[in-house]
Design a protein that fits this description.
The protein is mainly alpha-helical. It is built from seven helices and two strands; from the N terminus they run H-H-H-H-H-E-E-H-H. The chain has a two-stranded antiparallel sheet. The relative contact order is 0.19.
């Protein structure tokens, strides 16, 4: 019986996937923001019944969470910035800028850094996972909340939401 060696591309594939997800997240957030900029600003802060009461507050949550996880992945410790007083324009521009920063950092990560364990001891939880787990988490988190924004938009009468699906990005938008 012949034993096949584990392909060396396994690690490279993981690094590629994390970088692609970060690029996808940036693209999806830019796509969403471009769409939201076509809507009346007062609608973006209008409260509705949802897990977050408005599109703006959902965007702020995505922005803050991405900043938090980027600070963890960079090894800077926990960073929490209060963005609750941001204007609509600051929120829209801020999430795009921050998503780009996140994508650029992930793009610069070495294979070792992508796979390196990072200990987190916070008031909410304690864990020691490889950085790729955190990257995957933040991408999934942002995707989840972009879906909520589309739903809130639908409640507000927005019926023309853009496609921000990961496969759509891979097939058509890259």
């Amino acid at each position: 019986m012949t034993t096949l060696a584990m392909p060396q591309t396994m690690e490279a594939s993981l690094v590629y996937l994390m970088k692609n997800y970060a690029d996808y997240n940036f693209w999806a957030n830019v796509t969403l923001v471009k769409w939201l900029k076509t809507k009346p600003e007062e609608k973006l802060s209008q409260e509705v019944t949802s897990s977050f009461p408005s599109i703006q507050l959902t965007l702020i949550h995505i922005w803050q969470t991405q900043q938090y996880w980027l600070s963890i992945i960079k090894g800077e410790g926990e960073l929490y910035v209060d963005l609750s007083n941001s204007t609509i324009q600051e929120t829209l521009d801020g999430i795009v800028k921050q998503s780009n920063e996140l994508a650029e950092f992930v793009e610069s990560m070495t294979e070792d850094l992508v796979q390196r364990d990072t200990l987190i001891v916070s008031q909410w939880f304690e864990c020691n996972f490889p950085n790729f787990e955190y990257i995957q988490h933040v991408m999934n988190h942002s995707t989840y909340h972009r879906g909520q924004i589309v739903t809130i938009g639908r409640i507000l009468g927005f019926t023309d939401a853009p496609m921000t699906d990961y496969n759509f990005y891979n097939v058509r938008a890259k």
